Automatic annotation (TrEMBL), chains A, B:
Residues 198-201 are annotated as: Aspartate. Belongs to the class-II aminoacyl-tRNA synthetase family. Type 1 subfamily. This is Aspartate--tRNA ligase. ATP binds at R220, D221, E222, Q229, E484, G536, F537, D538, R539. It is found in: Cytoplasm. It is an enzyme of class 6 (ligase). Pfam families: GAD (PF02938), tRNA-synt_2 (PF00152), tRNA_anti-codon (PF01336).
Amino acid sequence: MLRTHTNGELRIEHAGTEVTLCGWVQRSRDKGGMIWVDLRDRYGVTQLMLEEGKSSAEALALARGLGREFVVEAKGVVVERLSKNDKMPTGDIEIKVKELRVLNPAKLPPFLIEDETDGGDDIRMKYRYLDLRRNPIRESLQLRHHVGREVRNYLDKQDFIEVETPVLIKSTPEGARDFVVPSRMNPGEFYALPQSPQTFKQLLMVSGFDRYYQIVKCFRDEDLRADRQPEFTQIDCEMSFVEQEDILNMFEGLIRHLFQNVKGLDIGQVPRMTYADAMKYYGSDKPDIRFDMKFVELKGEGVDLTSGKDFQVFDAANTVVGICVKGAAEYTRKQIDELTDFVRRPQIGAKGLIYARVQADGVVKSSVDKFYSEADLATWAAAFNAEPGDLILVLSGDGDKVRKQLNELRLDMGTRMGLRDPNNYTVHWVVDFPLLEYGEEEDRWFAMHHPFTSPKPEDIPLMLAGEFGKVRANAYDLVVNGVEVGGGSIRIFQKDLQSKMFEVLGFTPEEAQAQFGFLLDAFEYGAPPHGGLAFGFDRLCSLFGGTDSIRDYIAFPKNNAGRDVMIDSPSPLAQAQLDELKIKTTV
Amino acid sequence: MLRTHTNGELRIEHAGTEVTLCGWVQRSRDKGGMIWVDLRDRYGVTQLMLEEGKSSAEALALARGLGREFVVEAKGVVVERLSKNDKMPTGDIEIKVKELRVLNPAKLPPFLIEDETDGGDDIRMKYRYLDLRRNPIRESLQLRHHVGREVRNYLDKQDFIEVETPVLIKSTPEGARDFVVPSRMNPGEFYALPQSPQTFKQLLMVSGFDRYYQIVKCFRDEDLRADRQPEFTQIDCEMSFVEQEDILNMFEGLIRHLFQNVKGLDIGQVPRMTYADAMKYYGSDKPDIRFDMKFVELKGEGVDLTSGKDFQVFDAANTVVGICVKGAAEYTRKQIDELTDFVRRPQIGAKGLIYARVQADGVVKSSVDKFYSEADLATWAAAFNAEPGDLILVLSGDGDKVRKQLNELRLDMGTRMGLRDPNNYTVHWVVDFPLLEYGEEEDRWFAMHHPFTSPKPEDIPLMLAGEFGKVRANAYDLVVNGVEVGGGSIRIFQKDLQSKMFEVLGFTPEEAQAQFGFLLDAFEYGAPPHGGLAFGFDRLCSLFGGTDSIRDYIAFPKNNAGRDVMIDSPSPLAQAQLDELKIKTTV
């Protein structure tokens, strides 16, 4: 090895040892005949020291010529520092350099290689290999490695087998858009990249593999929103001879293991919430329950505290629903206006916002005092269990729509009130998702999870009776801090039921056979009951890291146009390559 | 859980326990009012037992209806067997069944689900999910999981970090053909699938990651030969601040760890052989050294034991070289003819084969007695250290060509003599590969390993002087039983040398910049000395499994036409999909 030690390991007890270190120049100072160089590698920083008259002229000259990010090898002796730095683990010592060698010089980097950098997103992505030198990014990828290792530790102990499924598979019309790959050996035909190994893991269950997992790249050719990547990584799992309860227990165990071993946190039991309750109390299928602010209906099914007072807005709405923000009664007019502007943004789409403050004296003052008496407003406050100092925020409109709007407001209020600390974790399941949802635009039913999800056995009669909207699925999501980090279902394992499902989704029997014949066939050769789930690995890592951005947890991410700006990809192909593939571009 | 135990875990000490088992019907017998069913899962087989008059009529009827591969749930009590079966771990017990439930019936499988099956390759691939139920295939994939886990155990302990590199990258003209992926968001442009993460792992070294690995899918669009797959898995590794010696030591350690922990074998030190010696003594850069039969030259550089005896064939050849096969002097005329036919096959291409037997009395008899006296032949025997009972086989012709022919003969003789036991392992390095090789057809130089491989520092002057054929690389292969399981190199880390390398390979500076500008740029911002290697994971697993076929170690392999016959892929795309991608097929 060129080096004897890393830059993170030398301590006072090494004093007197001859060492050779390698690394990058973080910074250097030249003062009063002394030169100090901070040498950095993945493991830490160690200070080098050279002294006029004591170090060789050659080493001194080299040291004076060092720029930021030069790659250097230094031989010398570990000595105790005069002025120690207790902020760094190696801060008690420095290296009295005898020999210095520049392994490679460096141009001045286009941005600072520091925890807080001056580089914008674009330049950091173009020079991602420099961005990766910064501690926060390096630590993100180290965390990712750690999470992956702990996932494997847990699942291996539970008798899961990691099996690799193919990347070159077959395009299917259901779901998101596929990336495709022309086949040179089969001209005119294409492979597709998997959106998930779903059908393969089910076939592995038919094969008797019983407990499967894979940490695997998946691909979706969707228009990219912030924090979506065309390629992403899943922790993909499947089990046989299980019911939903078994899956929930097994993967509660996984998530508990990860929190324990990665974060040192005991998350305790993982509560469960039905989809219906999640929508009712939070207007979201992935509620952030780090804070309360549950929805309370002033008007809705079996309740009406607003009608008959000539307030047209509420009278015209089928739903009046609000949240109670503890201790926010002091919000100024300006702050309330901001909230109103927030809910009126086109992507939220509420018409307006009604508020009511509970004053210190218990009297409720509202923006609709004109219509509602003090006694009326007191019934509101009671419905919310509101106390003096609380602020009630109310939206009105059409059931599901207004709930989604209120969800946005609730999350915004949570943030404003400082209730969404990324280092405070809540973990819970959402269960009993609907099996199907209606697509207005396409005028047909879609699988809410995917076409292989089993209806609840007790709801199969509803499905057969055509009451598709009422059928609940044996499907579940795991939610951490209001983010869906995983989801799955018990699968259909009977050919007839699977065929029925394809029929409901609008497949002809021929189409179903052409696309999924291998799976339907497999179900006839002894398919066991099975189910599973997949976690978004990138997302899970970012949650453990305490940030919202998954990009920092991906070594070489793509931008929102699906481009890797560092390697400049995608790019045009040579004509000969297209000819060989027997394809043509039509741009 | 549906089951309380697996089919591999019940023993005599469980007698009396109420259990529920699930699995597949391996076979059933119905005899004298008794029904026995062998129930199989991944963990083993357990015998179920039902008895006329004791079991319920319902359970008996169900049991009588069971076919092979039905999926069954059985509740009952563990009892000691009357006639024990010591061939199976659960052979001391059986389950006296109280309740039986068919979870899913099964059609008769198209081939036997047994260790030795009656199914041909095609039918087993079409129903791969059934083939995977067979013990040998299941065990192959379990072995693969085990090898993967041990790879990670070793590398994690050595401070390597697993980093995922992208799958959607950029097409490069050098090397094998790329699979490409049209970009919908960037019409007319394409991603490519990686043949290896080579440039990305080098960038990770520039980033300071220092020790990287990844178990990663790679892709090559080559015409498939037997046992080549378009997608395959590599154990990809890279280290910084190292020299070749450090890499060899680190990965000797890995391979030693794997043999120890997967096979329970101590392989001891891993010997090294230069490429020059490998070619000289074995005619191959991946010699199988499980057996000796080293090449001996009768005519070549500095030796000539054949000229001047009027044997035109040898006189016209620049090289006469042979092997000595211990104890094969008794080979019959017919067997020798077979060998002659073997070396004359077009894919080997020798003109003929000369033999010499060392008789029990020490006299050497040869097929060229006409030209060579007993004394002449004695000098041959001495050159080979041949003893009574040995057979000498000799080929002649042009240096490198004849060596390659003799390599084939040597391997064939090793097989014939039973010297190539797949469970007897030899592991060694081949080092000092040439940097460049000349492509006659294209009339240019090619990188023997890849364009990022460093020449040996002492050979750089040869490179600059244009003596490309003489330049040795800091490149190395790991060979197990005559199979290359891994290879790598110390990389170029200086921009100038890398540019020179691209120039030698025929790139214009503009082409080099367009293709690899990101890497050349990266080398200017502080690139450390680095190197690494990659192992073929599929191949490594097949070697540990003691077979030649990698297919058994891949869950869902493709056939020689690159097709997955199970899912019927590749396949044509819908016109709308092509339109959206702005491509057209030209078939």
